[in-house]
Amino acid sequence: MRTHTIIDSPVGALTLVATDGVLDGLYMRDHARMPDPATFGERAPTGFERAEEQLAEYFAGTRTAFTLDTAPRGTAFQRRVWDLVAAIPYGRTRSYAQLAEALGGGDHSVTRAVGTANGRNPLCVIVPCHRVVGSDGSLTGYAGGLARKRYLLDLEAPAEVRLF
């Protein structure tokens, strides 16, 4: 059964979605490429406590990694990209090209495919797609908007954004 809840955060309302109690979606308000909310199931007052607690700790600066059961829905390639993104350490960034190279292909088409997969990440913040930047360190594309991406990077590295 699919359920959802909506919580407040410093980056605005977050919608958490779970299937049979396993988190498979976390979307920001005005999230680009967000699925139709009608597919999120009924709004549930319970069942998201661990995710809510860990997100609150993250935004308070006391949590650097999430320990939640998740099941993001995507193609095999997308899941490989999301696994690489999930492995980017707190306070660090990687470029799209670096992720493409890690997948065994550094050419432009693979880099573009990595960007597309990253843009379809259904678990923003938890799978930290905000940590993926342009090769020159520039902030590029973020489904939650570049202002939120900057906020999350600043939260993780308040003095400076540590690249690569």
From TrEMBL:
EC numbers for this chain: 2.1.1.63
Record-level GO cellular component terms: cytoplasm
Enzymatic reactions: a 4-O-methyl-thymidine in DNA + L-cysteinyl-[protein] = a thymidine in DNA + S-methyl-L-cysteinyl-[protein]; a 6-O-methyl-2'-deoxyguanosine in DNA + L-cysteinyl-[protein] = S-methyl-L-cysteinyl-[protein] + a 2'-deoxyguanosine in DNA
Domain of life: Bacteria
Cellular localisation: Cytoplasm
Matches recorded under CDD domains: ATase
Domain Methylguanine DNA methyltransferase ribonuclease-like positions: 4-70
Domain Methylated-DNA-[protein]-cysteine S-methyltransferase DNA binding: 76-157
GO molecular-function terms, A-Z: methylated-DNA-[protein]-cysteine S-methyltransferase activity
GO biological process: DNA alkylation repair; methylation
Sorted UniProt keywords: Cytoplasm, DNA damage, DNA repair, Methyltransferase, Transferase
Enzyme class: transferase
Positions annotated as active site in the UniProt record: C129
UniProt-listed SUPFAM superfamilies: Methylated DNA-protein cysteine methyltransferase domain (SSF53155), Methylated DNA-protein cysteine methyltransferase, C-terminal domain (SSF46767)
HAMAP family recorded: OGT
Biological function: Involved in the cellular defense against the biological effects of O6-methylguanine (O6-MeG) and O4-methylthymine (O4-MeT) in DNA. Repairs the methylated nucleobase in DNA by stoichiometrically transferring the methyl group to a cysteine residue in the enzyme. This is a suicide reaction: the enzyme is irreversibly inactivated.
Miscellaneous remark of the record: This enzyme catalyzes only one turnover and therefore is not strictly catalytic. According to one definition, an enzyme is a biocatalyst that acts repeatedly and over many reaction cycles.
Family: Belongs to the MGMT family.
Name of this chain's protein: Methylated-DNA--protein-cysteine methyltransferase
Native organism: Spinactinospora alkalitolerans
